[in-house]
Amino acid sequence: NEDQFKKVISHAKEYGYVFQSSEIYDGLSAVYDYAQNGAELKKNIRDYWWKAMVQMHDNIVGIDAAIFMHPTTWKASGHVDAFSDPLIDNKDSKKRYRADVLVEDYCLKIEAKIEKEVKKAEKRFGESFNKEEFISTNGRVVGYQEKIDTILKRLGQSLEKEDLADVKALIEELEIACPVAGSRNWTDVKQFNLMFGTKLGASAETAMDLYLRPETAQGIFVNFLNVQKTGRLKIPFGIAQTGKAFRNEIVARQFIFRMREFEQMEMQFFIKPGTQKKWFEHWKETRMKWHLSLGMGEENYRFHDHEKLAHYADAATDIEFKFPFGFKELEGIHSRTDFDLKQHEEFSGKKLQYFDHEDNESYTPYVLETSIGLDRMFLAVFSNALVEEELEDGKTRTVLKLPAVLAPVKAAIFPLLAKDGLPEVAKKIVEDLKWDFNVAYEEKDTVGRRYRRQDANGTPFCITVDHDTLEDNTVTIRHRDTMDQKRVKIEDLKEIIKAEVDV
Ligand code: ATP
């Protein structure tokens, strides 16, 4: 809900996770900076992905292609002609909308209205109330439901040019169904290309028009044969990469969910034509397992299979996550056929074929793609972790229950008091542990306060050095989630922390 989302945004700022870009100049819309803790969390998510995708797979290698690419790349990939979103302006409010997002918003409002009607009826009819029956017999509600269904079906995943007039009509129709809507004075729907352009070269005459890449995938396709040959890779094999991508999003909302500069983690898996169904299922399952391994709750994920497919795909699904504003796409899994390699063959004039020694034949491989936004994953992890807990004494505590493997700081080490030689012992522990983990030292405030601060920061362990430590080399280790405290030997700390934070 909205309140929870506001808390997420302000917590991310207060604890040094995410800042608005160029804040002193009032910020830049839909561009964000990762602060001291955010950079660590982001790096840990990236590493967790890289480890699972590259290190753990004998047949997947990683590359790091440049952001700038030859401009023909984007003609071949279809981005110059077709990488656009439908845009609509409201003539009265002068506000600009992405038409498909606007429709979705209306649908949500209408759905909320249906829910309300159902609740009212529930109250009125008590236990005898049958929701399904009510929805199917109550004309008013059914009217809305049917509209939503038709509209969502027609919108599908990507809009064709001929759909644009229809979309405008749909928006106007929805406004009638949705009493919360404002005016009915819209411009026509236009397609707006999302690529950022720039120039390479010093003089105006010779400068070359370039684009900032809107996805990392094309850097993999154009390197496909070089990597395959130098790596002596046999199909099936994958190429993975993480890196920045840029999109001039029409309306960027929802914090780091939709940014103009963001990072992707993509993997292209090259397979024999005809095996794509099997591999599509394989990667759906493998990617979902990766998500579930973080322990963020099975109920927070679902697949959304695409009915209407992009021109390059023969199957596609999204892994959706329950963000504070509802279930939304977190990752896409696409069966891209040989579309991309064939296009690059055509535009470059170079063969991009694979010779299969076993079958003694050459072919253009098919591709299965997994594509996840690093920033979106950050938002999923961060928003899911932020909880307010009622304590036994009636107080509440704010805890950031980040998966330990992703937490920016793994342990904070405190001297109980900033005297009597306790800081020296605590600092010695920091010196020893920092070879293996990112750790922090704190001596200000009461230990209780320091615990709360580390809880809110997501630190899985707090370690306190007290006067007994000087006698017996033991410390108190406190667990963030259970708040359990144990007395352990200093020499065992590394293993205890490792057991929790290593994968
Ligand atoms: P959406 O429908 O939300 O615009 P998309 O379907 O265009 O996303 P893809 O092109 O499939 O997204 O990109 C793959 C992944 O990259 C998405 O699942 C998402 O996690 C991430 N992503 C895409 N656009 C953005 C953005 N503007 N900001 C942050 N992450 C993004």
UniProtKB/TrEMBL annotation:
It comes from the Bacteria. CDD domains: GlyRS-like_core, GlyRS_anticodon. Its main location: cytoplasm. GO terms for biological process: diadenosine tetraphosphate biosynthetic process; glycyl-tRNA aminoacylation. Substrate binds at residues 98, 215, 262-266, 369-373. It is found in: Cytoplasm. GO terms for cellular component: cytoplasm; extracellular exosome; microvesicle. It catalyses: tRNA(Gly) + glycine + ATP = glycyl-tRNA(Gly) + AMP + diphosphate. SUPFAM superfamilies: Class II aaRS ABD-related, Class II aaRS and biotin synthetases. NCBIfam families: glyS_dimeric (TIGR00389), PRK04173.1 (NF003211). HAMAP family: Gly_tRNA_synth_B (MF_00253_B). This is Glycine--tRNA ligase. The gene is glyQS.
